[in-house]
Amino acid sequence: MGLFSRRSASAAGSAATPLEGVDTVLADLDGVVYAGAGAIPHAVESINRARESARVGYITNNASRTDRAVAEHLSELGLPTRPDEVVTSPQAAMRLLAARVAPGSTILVVGGDGLVDELHKAGFTVTRSAEDAPAAVVQGFAPEVDWNQLAEAAYALQTPEDEGGIPWIATNTDWTIPKERGIAPGNGTLVSAVHTAVGRLATVAGKPETPIFEEAVSRFSAKKALFLGDRLDTDILGANRAGIASLHVLTGIDRPKHVLAAPPDSRPDFIVADLRGLFEPYPETVIDGERVSVADATVRVDGPDIVIERAGDQLNLLRAGAQAIWRSGRAIFGFRVPEQLYADPFVSRRS
Asked: Do 159 and 105 fall within a single domain?
């Protein structure tokens, strides 16, 4: 069961803003607030404005930095933030680890300071070598992760857990990370490398799994939260699993074509071009048979074709097209979709 009741379709499409009634805004970082060291356009001023009516917290799968380092970075960007306002995937990993190994156990780490810091705070002993007989392997992203760290994890994970092997916990499995120069490999690619070597699957702590959301809801005493994300397969899927309303912002990884193709469990409540959309009345979705209208845009399903009757604003066109495809119950590859429907004039993550 979800942590919150989701808005009905009619309520989600009302003229209210996405922030109506929200007491806690939970935001992803990479691709939502910043890309690399720099802020996403309009993100800082929008989040500061949101703080006037709601608590704001940050949820990140990036395990390479401590909560304190993240808070300092956000503060430097103009978002005054305390470390306890940052919920990280290593913190969620500690929840899983504490339930599976004895207190004070030796843990083999693949990752950086963010993961090591949380292990120390939880009372575990850290090693980088499989020769130290670790009780578990915990793996998270860090730019300095290299073949040697991956190899040590593989050595420690040779035996499957159901045959007496040790647990393997991954902070997250994001395939990519948005950086200033473009899209770079994420922790999922590194976890996959170890999986290929040992034939085992890791237990995942961060998004899209629910422990990280449950930690955030508890920490902020949220009654009605809104999660802001840029990835459908981690951010939106995770929020949906946790029963939290979700907003997809087109400043990060997943673009309009991904939104149109989103499977049922990865569909957001709101779609906005950038975080200024938090304060804009969200247009109503009007359904008339196979015809879906959002403000000045109308899209119709006609057999195998998606037909644009009124193009209108590009964002409203995307919203209408997504609803038309989603409510059809058919996968997007079963349609002929005009290129205009997934045109991408929105703010680039590299702006």
From this structure: yes
> Does the residue 77 lie in any domain?
no
Question: Per the structure block, which two tokens stand in for 219?
Answer: 């920490």
| Tokens read off for 36 | 């690399």
Point out the catalytic residue in the list 28, 117, 174, 233. 28
Place of tokens 């730019």: 143
| Pair of tokens at residue 178 | 């948005």
Identify the CATH number of the domain in which residue 112 sits: 3.40.50.1000
Quick one: angle between helices 89-98 and 113-121, nearest 10?
A: 40
Q: Does one domain contain both 142 and 194?
A: yes
- Catalytic residue (one of 23, 30, 233, 274): 30
Find out whether 15 and 283 touch, Cβ atoms under 8 Å.
Answer: yes
pLDDT, tens digit, 9 for 90 and up, residues 19-57: 999 999 999 998 999 988 899 999 999 999 999 999 999
DSSP string of 214-257? HHHHHHHT-SSEEEEES-IIIIIHHHHHHT-EEEEETTSS--HH
Task: Report residue 220 as tokens.
Answer: 């902020």
Residue-number span of the structural domain to which 151 is assigned = 90-204
Is pLDDT larger for residue 192 or for residue 113? 192
Contact 190, 202 (CB under 8 A): no
Known catalytic residue: 30? yes
